[in-house]
Amino acid sequence: MLKTVVQRLGCGYSARAASYAGHGTVPDVVRSHNEDRDHKIAWSVDGQVEHKVQWIDEVTKDFMRSRSRVDSSPLPRIVWVSHSIGSHLVQRHLILRKDVLFRTRAVIHLMPFTRFDPFPRWKETILSMAANAPTITTTVLQTSSRFANLLPRNVVDIYLKHIAGVSLVEDRELARGLLCNPEYAKNFITLGMEEIRDVPAKSDVSFNKMQHFLNCNNSRKVANRYIMTPTSSNVTSAQISAMKIIGNWCPAFILFGGGPDQWAPKFHLDEISSDIADGSLPKNITLEYNDDLLHGFIVYPEMIEPVVNFICKSVISSPDVGTCTVVPSKL
What we know:
alpha/beta; Rossmann fold; 2 domains; four-stranded parallel beta sheet; globular
């Protein structure tokens, strides 16, 4: 998808992509056959934020190494494209690192999971209970995965095609491999439960204390105080403050889908729209709703095109301040 976006945008754009350990599918992330867990991977939400911080630093170093000593080109500008929990990670990243925020041209969120407030309410109750009993939940999911691995291949394929709605054969092959992999189930549920505990339920638009962050010499210290402590009562308020701080520097474009989507429900869009209207949030936040899109749109080929169009439209409409240099794509 990102390759298509870069091709559409043309000269002057390139793309780098990073995955999320809880959703990763490569062998280095998904261990099986009782292999030792890769402790180099940060198996926590905080660790995944730090991983993305280090990743951007490596991308920057790669650019610095590639240019000649006499080349005085500025560092490349960044357009963030995030999906689901990735939106939460991006917001935390930009609060942690104001130097990266100041290089950011735009933030594009696709079905952002930045609040845990699903509808109907019984989903919130059940998911919260599961998240607060991690040992039991992990055991149940891993047992289910082992059971799925014992089923005939065609039975799992029928379930994925007709019930889960995975239409393409190659997508069902990937989905079956993950569904029947107990280690993937463990990774998915371990980080998934922490997401539920870490992501706030509500936003407080009256919280302005973090505004002094932009003038603070030690942004990591400020961010740790308000963002990196999930048990703090400040976390809920900090999410909306993150949108304010980011909005003071660059525009944000947010796409919501149908479903209904329990991770990014439409009433979140309505609340953000209301906050923009009354001045609680910056007016450079653009919202769009597409009822034909699902949260997991990436596995449905017919849903890719409208998402690509949204990303390209958002990038083109975002102001490009100053001159930037392109880092080669690695997709």
